[in-house]
TrEMBL record:
It comes from Actinoallomurus spadix. It is an enzyme of class 3 (hydrolase). CDD domains: 6PGL (cd01400). This is 6-phosphogluconolactonase. Its EC number is 3.1.1.31. InterPro entries: 6-phosphogluconolactonase_DevB (IPR005900), 6PGL (IPR039104), Glc/Gal-6P_isomerase (IPR006148), NagB/RpiA_transferase-like (IPR037171). Residues 11-236 form the Glucosamine/galactosamine-6-phosphate isomerase domain. Hydrolysis of 6-phosphogluconolactone to 6-phosphogluconate. It catalyses: 6-phospho-D-glucono-1,5-lactone + H2O = 6-phospho-D-gluconate + H(+). Gene3D superfamilies: 3.40.50.1360. Belongs to the glucosamine/galactosamine-6-phosphate isomerase family. 6-phosphogluconolactonase subfamily.
Length: 258
């Protein structure tokens, strides 16, 4: 796992634009190297803003949308099309506007699937496993970029402080019950799955995130501070706006756009 680098942008709007531009470059490079790319989306305010900016980016079609696999880091266990589902937001913001192969969009199951949350988690794990190649050496494909929002309580994906999902050491996907942020029932990638990603990008904007950002960059344990467990295999980036970076020790963040 890699130590985090921190980049600070002026405000949420510039942060979202800069992350969208970074995604274009990273995904184009990954596709040039291997022919395809795997991207993991996050829900939440800034995560969705990034997707809107990507849809609007002049260079967006430099990405070979036909060879991009899109996954989710977590999902709120609600019916298909529910406006609080992370999938619904991502489709509206980006996926409905680009020439992506529908078979390569991999939403987590919905509550109207008839599956229990546990079976839904297992089904998603099976879908991930089916997408692996021998060179992935694991049960999930090598994610090129895995984006995560950060809650004010430092949750990432649907991994909330102190909850059992944070103790998972083997399964890549679990059901979450009793989440403190509604809805209480969710599906989430686990820390072991997150750690397989080549690059993990934690994206946070707003003053309410400043304490969580500070803790996520400290030596705190991931059970108490899930954001402190958000680390990638080759690179970990904390992409922040100035207010979310407000409690960083001086000198830790590099100002990317003052
Ligand atoms: O519930 C969730 O919250 C987090 C953070 O959302 P934000 O609006 O505070 O940025 C998000 O990363 C996660 O995917 C989502 O399910």
């Amino acid at each position: 796992m890699t130590a985090p680098s921190v980049l600070v942008h002026h405000d949420q709007s510039l942060l979202a634009k800069a992350v969208a531009a970074r995604l274009v470059t990273r995904l184009v490079d990954a596709q040039a190297a291997t022919g395809g790319a795997h991207l993991v989306l996050t829900g939440g305010g800034v995560g969705t803003a990034v997707l809107e900016e990507l849809a609007a980016a002049p260079a967006r079609d430099a990405i070979d949308w036909g060879h991009l696999d899109v996954w989710w880091g977590d999902e709120r266990y609600l019916p298909t099309g529910h406006e609080e589902r992370n999938e619904t937001g991502a489709r509206k913001a980006l996926l409905d506007h680009v020439d992506i192969d529908p078979k390569r969009i991999h939403p987590m199951p919905s509550s109207d699937s008839g599956l229990s949350p546990e079976d839904a988690a297992e089904q998603y794990a099976a879908e991930l496993r089916a997408a692996t190649r021998p060179e992935d050496h694991g049960v999930v494909p090598s994610f090129d970029v895995l984006m995560l929002g950060l809650g004010p309580d430092s949750h990432v994906a649907s991994l909330f402080p102190g909850m059992p999902a944070l103790y998972e050491e083997e399964r890549p996907v679990v059901a979450v019950h009793g989440a403190p942020k509604p809805p209480p029932t969710r599906i989430s990638l686990t820390l072991p799955a997150i750690h397989t990603a080549r690059e993990v990008w934690v994206i946070a904007a707003g003053e309410s995130k400043a304490g969580a950002v500070h803790l996520a960059l400290s030596d705190a344990g991931p059970v108490q501070v899930p954001g402190a467990g958000a680390r990638g295999r080759q690179r970990t980036l904390f992409l922040l706006d100035r207010t979310a970076a407000g409690k960083l020790p001086p000198g830790l963040g590099r100002i990317a756009s003052p």
